[in-house]
């Protein structure tokens, strides 16, 4: 079983739609969670951290469910510019270690006009 | 702004050549990482370093070595390049209170 699993998609949605991605992780002791965004032929960039209480940044909402070991990302009112690959990322040991992160394979989103 | 730079965006080498990929970060981060990214396989960690002259193997170290002589610089070395090392190579740095990693723009290496 992979340490971090995501549905690769692609998710094809019209502009203005709401779309949600889920990600599961296998290590129940994992401490930190993130969503990264990667545009085509570019490097990954941090989109947002995921906190236990859930957090929101504009049209983006991230949720963490420790009991079920999954993380979600909700995008409301999708824009063409949201088209990208979204990587679910887990730090299995927290920030006191070497900072090693585990990356999911990514979920591809295509927003159509 | 955090800046991570990589020595080349595109590189073409021949089988058997020794290849050096360099990465420099300007944020005084303790941790630096080398990944390769291939379609369908995602990001895979090759090596990482948590301090000068310290290194640890990642998930796929075979065929690679690294060097960290200075805190800001982390080099990936392919001793004898092979065609199966054709890939996108991404360097990242991170550390401090947050464990966010910041990536360089990547080097697309083709081994002929």
Which two protein chains have the largest interface (Cβ within 8 Å of the partner's Cβ), and how many residues from each? Answer: A-B, 20 and 26 residues
Largest sheet of chain B: 7 strands, mixed
| Helix-strand string of chain A | EEEEEEEEEEE
Gap between N and C termini of chain B: 37 Å
Cα shape of chain B: globular
- Quick one: overall form of chain A? globular
Question: What would you call the quaternary organization?
Answer: heterodimer
Query: Structural class of the secondary elements of chain B?
Result: mainly beta
Number of helices of chain B: 0
Residue runs with pLDDT of under 50 for 5 or more positions of chain A: none
Number of strands of chain A: 11
Task: Characterize the structure shown.
The complex is a heterodimer of chains A (113) and B (112). Chain A has strands at 4-6, 11-14, 19-25, 32-38, 45-50, 55-57, 60-65, 70-75, 84-91, 102-103, 107-112. In chain A, 35% of the residues are buried. Chain A is built from no helices and 11 strands. With 112 residues, chain B is mostly beta strands. Chain B has no helices and 11 strands. In chain B, strand 7 and strand 8 (73-78) form a beta hairpin. Chain B is globular, with a radius of gyration of 13 Å. Chain A binds chain B through residues 32, 34, 42-46, 49, 87, 91, 94-95, 98-101, 103-106, and chain B through 30-31, 33, 35, 40-43, 45, 48, 50, 56, 58, 90, 94-95, 97-106.
Secondary structure elements and pairings:
The complex is a heterodimer of chains A (113) and B (112).
Chain A: E1 4-6, E2 11-14, E3 19-25, E4 32-38, E5 45-50, E6 55-57, E7 60-65, E8 70-75, E9 84-91, E10 102-103, E11 107-112
Parallel strand pairs in A: 2-11
Antiparallel strand pairs in A: 1-3, 3-8, 4-5, 4-9, 6-7, 7-8, 9-10, 9-11
Chain B: E1 4-6, E2 10-13, E3 19-25, E4 31-38, E5 42-51, E6 54-57, E7 65-70, E8 73-78, E9 87-95, E10 98-103, E11 107-111
Parallel strand pairs in B: 2-11
Antiparallel strand pairs in B: 1-3, 3-8, 4-5, 4-9, 5-6, 7-8, 9-10, 9-11
